[in-house]
Amino acid sequence: MFTAGHVVISSRDAEADRAFFRDVLGFSFVDAGDGWLIFALPPSEVALHPSDKNGIHEFYLMCDDLEATMTELAKHDVPCSAPVDTSWGIRTTFQLPGGGELGLYQPKHPMAVSP
User: Fold this and answer.
1) CATH number of the CATH domain containing 75
2) Distance, CA of 50 to CA of 23 (rounded, Å)
3) Which of 7, 51, 69, 109 is most buried, by the most CB atoms less than 10 A from its CB?
4) Within 13 A of 80's CA, how many CA atoms are on the CB side?
5) Residue 7 covered by a domain
6) Could you read off the pLDDT of 94-111 as tens digits, one per residue?
7) CB 115 within 8 A of CB 107
């Protein structure tokens, strides 16, 4: 029934964030026209959490080794917040050039897809 998902990240500086995804994170992409880059994501999963409000969405990148990934990001002058150990994973955040923030975590939970 469905062929894929599409994530939208709003940004005050989309050009800088696109360059970051391309040059720092190394995501492959297509140019949809006029430099409008659309990036391929690694295998993904979606979780539905209870909330008092609808329409709240979060986007996390996942990795197998948070410490190694943070070290790699630091090589590109991308600082991460202090890791937080939770029941579902070890998580951190980092800031995009456009000012937004992305979550990153090493899951402890069973994954719905193989990384």
Assistant:
1) 3.10.180.10
2) 36
3) 69
4) 22
5) no
6) 999 999 999 999 999 999
7) no
